[in-house]
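DATA SHEET
Item: assembly model
Revision: 1
Owner: S.N.
Input lines:
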Amino acid sequence: MVDHLFRHESGKMVAVLTRVFGFANIEQAEDIVQDTLLKALEAWKWGKIPDNPQAWLYKTAKNKAIDLIRREKLKYKIEHEFAPLLKSEYTLVPSMNEMFRENEIKDSQLRMMFACCHPSITIESQLTLVLKTLCGLSTKEIGNAFLANEDTIQKRLYRTKEKIREEHISLDYPGADNMPARLDTVLKALYLLFNEGYNSSHPEKLIREDLCEEAIRLTILLTENPKTNLPHTNALLALMCYHTSRFGARLDDKGYMVLLKDQDRTQWNKFLIERGNYYLNFAAAGNGIHEYHIEAAIASVHANAKSYERTDWEMILQLYTNLFNRTQSPVVAINRCIVLGEVKGYDAAIAELEQIKGFANNCYYNTSLGEMHLKAGHKKEAANYFQKALEFTSSHAEIELITRKLRLC
Amino acid sequence: MYLFRGGVNHAHNAADSEAAAKNMQAWVNWMGGLQQKGILAGGEPLQPTGKQISGTKKVVTDGPFAEAKEMVGGFLIVNAKDINEAVEFSKGCPIFEEDGHLEVRPIQKM
């Protein structure tokens, strides 16, 4: 319980204090939050958790921040628009209290999202910074998520913070002209964060629910502010809700993968499917259609289908064709071929899969071909592709699934 | 520069915390307004105690002598194009509601 509280509250406090001190002084914000959590652990050690632990944390962090500002050294480094209010004793305490109000906390988190996902920062550094500062993950946990050691993550964070200072990245909202492009960068980062959780590169953990949960939480924040609550923000959120609804059915008791066809649909989370429908409804506004709209629509057809056989495959194929025409992505093309198999037959799917070049060394590509051959009754070809697929994955769950398939060949 | 004299020193009157909170909010609102217009440059409230040092012998005595209403209770620095504009900006100051007064002085460039 304390873990969960700490993770969420530390993300909020880092955002608020970084806004107070300025993005260039993010380390001071992180230090205060770290001290606050240590102080809480000490004070709550014998089970004496206060009635309102959140208020306890905020009060402690606030006092530490006020002390730090009063010490002249940091005071003169604070240079944002409301700095004069923090630098005067007339207004220091009330301004700090104001920053810790719920609306201001959310505002700080949003500003922080835009700053972390600044286009001059590489995508992997964006995700690392988001996980560290907004989601309160430790460098070790981030290392686990990205299959990198702690040292690499620490170095990456250090370089990113240098970059923030060099580029003078501030916590100001992008101007109206830049907003759409900047929001796209933020959404892309959240989409990738969700993907990493949905199909983790971690060998032993196929699903990292915590990463998905964080991605959803941050996307919900974006829908709560009129500046960022655009149709495609809602489309992305719908997509995340639909995919998350299946988590309970994707793995069996032994942790083995269960494919869509064999999933127990009664285990799909109805609440999340309804939330998906709800957000997709909001996404259906404005004139533009974004890729997230199409992906959400595909997920919606699956989530709302009574069974695998009664899925509207024609509709899904149309959506995939549309998506492919926009993105030209080979991954989309592979997915489209599998759907094509359900609509036009497995031989047609095999023919189209063979047209996709450059993916011969991809696990997913080879499993897809194996599966289509197996369904078409070509056991020998299927076995060859499954064998090949095994060479290109390190995920225990995937290896187990492919081995199971091989036994059917 | 605004020099504040008189008014109520709420920091030393904790018993009336509701009035103190109201007064503090009034200062935050006024100064917040100045900050948003980019006028506010800085300033601090002052404690009602202190030391006076005077003469070639540097005699030290306790406290500002003047009566409470004559004592400087704080200062604020604003960016104004001339003294008239500074006077205009000062009119929303909460000190006038608390029976205090404010002196506007241009900073001498040396």
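QC remark: Residues 43 and 49 of chain A are 8 Å apart (CA to CA).
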